[in-house]
Each structure stands twice: as C-alpha cells, then as structure tokens.
Amino acid sequence: MTSRRTKRRVHVLLTVGKGGRLARAIDWLIVGLIVLNVVAVVLATVDSVFERYRSVFYAFEIVSIGVFTLEYGLRIWSATAVPEYSSPITGRLRFGTRPHLLIDLFAIVPFYVGTVVFAFDLRVLRALRLFRFLRLLKLVRYSEAMQRFGRVAHRKRDDLLLAITGSSVLLVVASSLMYFVERDAQPETFSSIPATLWWGVVTLTTVAYGNTYPVTPAGKVLGGLVAVLGVGLFALPASILASGFIEDDADPRRCPHCGESLGTDLPGHER
Amino acid sequence: MTSRRTKRRVHVLLTVGKGGRLARAIDWLIVGLIVLNVVAVVLATVDSVFERYRSVFYAFEIVSIGVFTLEYGLRIWSATAVPEYSSPITGRLRFGTRPHLLIDLFAIVPFYVGTVVFAFDLRVLRALRLFRFLRLLKLVRYSEAMQRFGRVAHRKRDDLLLAITGSSVLLVVASSLMYFVERDAQPETFSSIPATLWWGVVTLTTVAYGNTYPVTPAGKVLGGLVAVLGVGLFALPASILASGFIEDDADPRRCPHCGESLGTDLPGHER
Amino acid sequence: MTSRRTKRRVHVLLTVGKGGRLARAIDWLIVGLIVLNVVAVVLATVDSVFERYRSVFYAFEIVSIGVFTLEYGLRIWSATAVPEYSSPITGRLRFGTRPHLLIDLFAIVPFYVGTVVFAFDLRVLRALRLFRFLRLLKLVRYSEAMQRFGRVAHRKRDDLLLAITGSSVLLVVASSLMYFVERDAQPETFSSIPATLWWGVVTLTTVAYGNTYPVTPAGKVLGGLVAVLGVGLFALPASILASGFIEDDADPRRCPHCGESLGTDLPGHER
Amino acid sequence: MTSRRTKRRVHVLLTVGKGGRLARAIDWLIVGLIVLNVVAVVLATVDSVFERYRSVFYAFEIVSIGVFTLEYGLRIWSATAVPEYSSPITGRLRFGTRPHLLIDLFAIVPFYVGTVVFAFDLRVLRALRLFRFLRLLKLVRYSEAMQRFGRVAHRKRDDLLLAITGSSVLLVVASSLMYFVERDAQPETFSSIPATLWWGVVTLTTVAYGNTYPVTPAGKVLGGLVAVLGVGLFALPASILASGFIEDDADPRRCPHCGESLGTDLPGHER
C-alpha cells in the first residue's frame, strides 16, 4: 500500500506540469543537466580544455548517465500507477514505446552499447559522443515553445511542402544549366551536376562562400538570373513560418487538446 | 462498340483525378518516371558513374521515351471519346494543341529529332540532354501545388511587376554609378556598365561571391548605400509572394473551378 | 482662335491618361525613348561597341535631346490652355516649377550646358553622361507603379524611419566595438571607425564580400553576435514595405485624388 | 519662494514633452550634443583627423561633459519640485535611481573616474572612449521610436524567445556535426566545436565571408542541408518583429499610458 502511494507520488513528480515545488525543481534539474551535457560535448572538443579537465568530463558523463538512467527507470517503474498502464509487463511496454520514453531510452543506450559492446574502444567512443546530442530531444517534453514550433510547421505543411518542392526543382534545373554553361571554362569546380549543386545551394541561399562562381559571360548572365529569381523562392519558407506564428497568436479558436485550428467557417465569425 | 468503351476507359485512366486505383497507379508511375529521368540526367554527368552504368543509362532513356510516347499516343488516340473533341482529325488537333499536350510532345520530340536527324551525332545528343528537363513540366499536370503557385503569382502580378521594375532600375543606376566611380581603380573588373551589372546583381541579392567589390573610399560609400537601400527592395518579391500564399489560405471565397478570388466587396463581408 | 484650339489639343495630347489613340502613341514613344536612352548610356561604356557605333550613339543623343526639347517646349507653350495657368508669363512660370516639369527640364539642361559652356570638352561631356540617368525620372509621370511605391513609403514613413534609425545606431556601435577589438590584429583593414563601417555595412546586409572579417577570438564572438542580432534589424525595412503593399491592396478606402488613406476610424468600419 | 519657482521651472524645462519653446530648444540641444559626441568618437579614430584637430576634440569633450554634468545636476537639484520626491535626500535618491537618471549618470561618470583615478593615463583614457557610446542611451528619453521598438519586442517576446532558442539549438547541433565531418580534412579551421561555431554563425546568417567552408563531399551535403533549412529559421525573428510593428500600427486599442494591448476580445470587435 505504501509502495503504491510512493509509486504514484514518483509518477506525479516526474510528470511535467504536475506536482508541487519539488516536481518543478526536478524538472529544472533535468533541463539543466541536458544543457550542461551539450556544453560538455562542445567544450570537450577543445584539446587544451579536454586535456586539463579530462577526469571532470568523464565524471560528469558518468553522473549524467546515472541520473538519466535513474530517471528512465523510475518512469518505467512508476508507469503502473496510471490505470491505463497498470499491467506490470504489457502496460509498461506500451508506456515505454511512447515517443517521450523512446527519446529517454535513446539518450542513454549509446553509452551502454559503447561501454559494454566495444569495451572502451576509444575510436568508437569518440564517434558515440555525437549521439549525446540526442539528449537535446529530451527538452521537447519541457518546452512548450518547441511543441508550438511543431504545431505551426504542421499547420503550414502544404505551403512549406510547395516552397520546398519548388526550391528543389529550381535548384536542380539551375545547377544543371550552370553545369552545361561553365564545365568547359572550369572543369575542376563544375565537374558534374552533383558537384554543381554545391554552387546552386550556396547561391540560392545567398550564403556564397566565394569559392565557386561562374566566370564566363553566359555563366554570369545565368547566375544573375538564378540569383534574382531564386533567392526569393528560397526565402519563402521563412515568411510562411512567420505567418504561421502570427496566425497562431491571433487565433484563439484552437482545440485545447491538440492545438489544431477549429476552422474559420464558424457562424458569426469574420476574419 | 467495344473499341469505343476501351477508348473511353483509356481516356479516363489517363485523366488526373479520375478513375479508380489503376488510374492512380498510372499517375504515380509517370510521376516516378519523370523524377527518375531528372535523376538520370544529373547522375550521368558524373564521369565515373556514367562509365560504369553506360548501358543502364541508355536502356533507361529508351524505356522512358517508349513509355512517354505510348502515353502521348494513347492520349491523342482516346481524345475522341470526349464529345468536345469527337472529330477524328480536327478534334484531335484541337486537343493536341492544349498546353498539357504540347508539354507531353516537347518531352519526347528532342529524342526523335536527335536520333533521326543527327543520326547519333554524339555532340548533338549531349546538348539534347538538356531538353530532358522539359519533362519536368509534365509534373504540372499532377501537382496542385504548382498550379497554386502560378495562381498566387498571377494574383500578385501588379505588386511583383512593380518590385521587379523597381529592382531593375535600381540595378542599372547603381551599377552605372559604381562603374563611373571604380573604373579608374579597377579597369579590369569594372570595365564597362554591363560588366559592372555582375557586381550589382551579386551585391543586391547579397550573394556576393567576393570576387568583385569596390576598393576606393567613394566606391565603398556608394556600395554601402546601395547595399543598405537595395537589399530590402530585392527582398520585396519574396514577401509579396508569401503574403499571396497567406491570403490564398485565408480566403475561402474563390471560384471552385478556376481558383480566382470572388472579390472582397460581397455584402456583409468584413476583411 | 484656331491657335487656341491647337494649343488645347496639344495640351491634352501631352497629358498622361487623356486624349485618344494618338495621345497613347505619344506616351509610348516617349517612354520607349527614355528606356533606349538608358540602354545607350549602358552600351556606350563597352569600348568595342562604342568604337564601332560611335556615330550612331551621337546621332541618337541629338535626336533624343531634340524630341525631349520639343516635348518640353510644347508643354510650356500649351500650358496657358488651362485656366489655372492662363497668364502667359506668371502662369507658365508656375506651371514650369511643378515637379514633373522640373524633371523634364533637368533631363535636357545638362546637354546644353555641356555643349555651350564647355564647348565639347570631352572629359566634361563624359562626366555629363551620368546626368542622362535623370531622364529615368521622366518615367514617374507614366508609371502608376512608381507613384504607388512612393505612396506606400510615405504611409509607412514612421516605421521606416524607426528601422533606419535603429539600423544606423547599431551599425555605428557595432563598427566601433569591432574597431577597438580588431585594430591591433589587423591595423590595415580596421584602421579607424569610418574604415570599419565598411565591415559593418557588408556584414549587417549579409553582403560580406569576404575581404574584411574579424580574425581574433573576441572579434569572432562580437561579429557573430552582431550578425545574429543585426541581420534581422536590417531586414525590417523590406518587411515593413511589403506589409505596406499588402495593406495598400486590401484597403479600398483611399482618397481617389491623392491616394492617401482615409483613416481607420470611420463609423461602421471593422478592420 | 523665488527659488522654489525657479526650481519648478527648471524641472519643467528638463522634462521631455513639457514646457514651451525654450524647453524644446534645450531638448534639441542635448540630442544634438549626443549625436555630435558619437561623431567625435568615430572621427577621432582617424589618425590624420585626430592629429590635426587634437585640441578641438579635447575641448569638445570638456564642453560636453560640462553640459551633461550641469544637466544632471539640475535634474537632481530640481527633483524636489515634484511632491513625490520632495524630501531633499531620500527623495533625490529615489529620483536618482530611476533608469533615465542612472543613464545620465553613466554618461558622465567614466570621464571623472578616468581623469581623477587614473590621472590622465593615456591607455586607460583610450579604453574609456568606448564608454562614450553609453551617452547614446540618453537618446531613449527623447525617442518615441526607441520606446516603441522596446514595446514591440516586449509584445512578441514569446515568439522571439522561441526563434532564438530554436536558432541556438540548430547552431550548436549543425556546428557539432560539421566539426565531426570536417575536422580530419581541415584540422586548422575546424579545430574544435567552439571554433566551428564561427562557421555556423556566418553560414546561418548567410554572411559567409568565405574563409571557412566545408571541402569534403559529406561536409558539402551537410552544409547545403544546414543552409537550406537553417537560413529560414534565422530569418524568423525579423519577420516576427515586422509583424509586431504592423499589429502595433493596426491596433488602436492600446492603453495610452503603457502601450500594452487592451486585448482582442472586446464585444463588437472583429479582427
């Protein structure tokens, strides 16, 4: 009976937005630990820093994995406190395959795989460091902002898809034409259409590092036309997302459960 | 009689958005073949890939042309199933001059011209590869998104025209001034106004590869002013298109047939 | 009496948007001549073209000046046909100081000044070619689009002024900080704050030719912060202008005479 | 008694937006002096100018400090004219800790600290020149535009925070991936993740000076994806701010005191 109450209390403490002061403290602790994990991965690539604080980095990794493993274990263990997942095995399995729980699992599994399977093989461990960024995904649970971003992207998916399709077609066609125009003058840089795609991407996004550009008059005319016409097309997704956020602010008639718009055809509504 | 029913069935199968599961499968087959054609043109320019899979590329081109020719032939043949085009010759001629059918024709004609007229002249065939991108236009029939893009551009044509005219005037005036300012310091790069237009385009689109830029103090002041004032003007078309999409989403009062707006002056309508 | 009717007819013919088919032909003739004048200035800077068609360029300039002078003379002469300007001298003076007529005057005066005063001094004539771009201003009379652009800019002048002030302050402060950070590492490029303004402008407009950039760690951190914060600020004017065009489309309550908005506080108006 | 009226009059004269013609003249004098101070700091870094007008720069600095000190002193002295701050000591203390007054203090303190404490140590004085930019903050009192900018940023703080968080996460993840992909090919440029952040910032803001870019095929694919996906995200804050200004224009129902929106749910209001 006491165990049951403990389990329920643990479950509530780990559920975002529920519980009292302690629950919020736990939330902030985990969010802080995730951010520190990213900072550690970033700093550990600076050789001088890593050499000096090597043991600190290792210790911090062990502690992080410990906390995340404990958190994951407690979540799975306390899942049966919810009537929906009350069955000890199948209930926990269904609970453990929910997106948030899978993210929690992916955040710790690479460490155990790397340590157990490859027995501290340094090169493998180095590559596995990349997987620590998966821990960032744990933030989704705590961030209403990220959920909102996903909602806006979902809402504008048709427009975004259209802009992305149009951009892709323009990118391939522009790069192909540029390849046929410039390949004789610069056979090294414009050696094939896939190689010319690099020119296309850096030009259409206006990044343009300045290492690939047309030199023939025909190539310059084509490049100029592509820049003038294409830059606008590549800027469309940002404008579309922005308008999505604005509508998201303006429109109070959204389903309180899923965040989807309830439509604009309600009687007595003008927009 | 049976022939007539076959013809009608073929016509329905080839009409986008009609017919059952088989018709949709045919649609997807042709869309897939178009995309693969573009991928083939792109990959064939990588020498190592082309050398290795030369025969695959040739075989794929033959198959594609076969399918597109069959598709075109069946469309023309079955056109008489529609009362509007029932006359065997003049009806088919009128059907064959519709934009979609002309695109279908342009997608296959270059191959036959190249093979028959130039009898496998390799250099001509190489240049003809560019025309394979015309096959992308066939996608317009299947893509509601592309039609929508055209509709939005049509709707905002006045604003777009204004932005493009303003940009062009700014481009010519800015490049001319820069030519007069920089020609003495950099006679090679800024050799004439047309040559300076290249500077103007890459600066105003903010692409700026970094191979042409002013070096004199006067040129830098002019270049700075042009950048500050002009970049906004060149970004206008994207903003205008984006607003067109947003209005397109927001406004449900469009003719269901042509997609044109039904106007904003309906009684009882506030906007 | 006949002279009076001729005068009135000439005045109507030269007034944009009035008169019949002949009046529109005259409009198009002058617009075409203006565009050709700009094309001529641009092409004349290509040495090989200018050498070959030298006499054509001179003849075209004489013809253009003749037509523009005739047009200007007829406008001034026929001004008295309007009751408002009926006085032969003071009326014509008042008519001649209207903006459009001053533009017409500026389009021809440099030629006469150059020829008469400097007696075909080649270097002066060359510099005077720049003034031919003033003829572009004559287009304003014919272009409703340019008038609309001015109207939108006027309407959004507060926002634009704010964005421009903010951008200027950011530009000066960012460049000053960068000067103090980088001057020791790159004394040539970052020799003074005015010299560093060039870095500021090309960075904040994202033009970034790649010839001036920070190299010290502190300079890179500062440059990164400036880029992230500042690029958005410099993009504001474009967004503001775009929104001005959208409102200009959406809002039918404008004064039919001057195009100014009639305000948004009319009773019974929702927006 | 007369002193009291003088004090009240001084207080009114120094309060922006109050007083008659003289008060406005004082406002413009101080605004002009602030702008000239910034111009002086900028020009003084040009060696040739500074050498020639050394004494003018010093004199101008002394005069500026004198005026700003007098202004500050008069403000503090006359504060007791307001009933709220009528207590000679505690009232003036409370008045002196208001943001505007603290800014006034920061504008003059560095000069006195530098002169008194460091006794004309030239290197310290040089570094202190930077603090003169703090005088720009005095403009906030006079600029309704800057207050409006702050209001819009405050209103859109949630959206801005979301865009900035998203951008930061993307920046760190993209730079980390690029580091792992490119470090072997370019160990100098991509020496650590912090060093690679410079690549991330200049690419995602599309500044791209052209001194750091990926060279391996994998790096180019990654860089292309980051550019296409990320540029839009980094452009979001500008779009959000712009929409904030537009709403700020459109919405007349704001509290006249604080500028905050009064909400959009008033009866009889359509939006």
Automatic annotation (TrEMBL), chains A, B, C, D:
It is a multi-pass membrane protein. GO terms for cellular component: monoatomic ion channel complex. It holds the Pfam family Ion_trans. It is found in: Membrane. GO terms for molecular function: potassium channel activity. Residues 24-245 form the Ion transport domain. Keywords: Ion channel, Ion transport, Membrane, Potassium, Potassium channel, Potassium transport, Transmembrane, Transmembrane helix, Transport, Voltage-gated channel. The chain crosses the membrane at residues 28-50, 101-120, 160-181, 193-210, 222-246. This is Potassium channel family protein.
